[in-house]
Amino acid sequence: MAIKLIPLLSLMYLAVATRPDIAYAVYRLGSYMASPNMSHWTMAKRILRYLSGTKDLGITYQAKKPTPDENHFIGYSDASYANNDDLTSVSGYVSLMNGGAISWGSKKQSDVSLSSTEAEYIALAEETREITWLRHLMEGLEYKQPQPTKLCGDNSGSLAIAKNPQYHKRTKHFDTRHHYIRQKIKDCIIEVLYCPTINMTADIFTKALPKPKHQTHSVELGLSPT
Description:
Elements: H1 8-17, H2 23-30, H3 38-53, E1 57-59, E2 74-80, E3 90-97, E4 100-108, H4 116-140, E5 149-153, H5 156-163, H6 180-186, E6 190-194, H7 211-220, E7 223-225
Parallel strand pairs: 2-5, 5-6
Antiparallel strand pairs: 1-7, 2-3, 3-4
Helix pairs in contact: 1-2, 4-5
């Protein structure tokens, strides 16, 4: 008899709206919706038990008065190379504002990357689009940010490619749309910066992590007892 993952819709709502710490787990579970088996049902129950034990957690924000030269929010981007069954990679990104996450995502990349640098570059481009949208939203709320928004990545190769628009032999096969990031750097919309992997908050959206590291990144996302 086919197993129906009925709780998944509720889990997806939580992962999208209030609980970024389960985004990766829900993404992986959702990829087996077409033909789930007992192991996936066990995984769903494990997520529910985790939520039951952490039901007092919620995203909290710290009030502060913005200054004209301040970044209203900061972005983090990461990727897990060939982490899916079909050898596609996983993109993870998050935007933080006032000590809490305001936008995040964990998703499968549509293209098979030939290197970890390519996977990281695709993830950077995805977060760049998210940052562009957030900047437009903030401007509509009269919080225009004159300074470039900081976008942090932990792969020096992908950051170098983003900063340098010159021809690269190793990037000639890259999909043109991923070079969107270069235009935004040129237009001073974003500024890409290196972030050590140990401090990469978006890592929680790309792979299963040991409990201590998962808890550390959850705190960085602004999750605390409410």
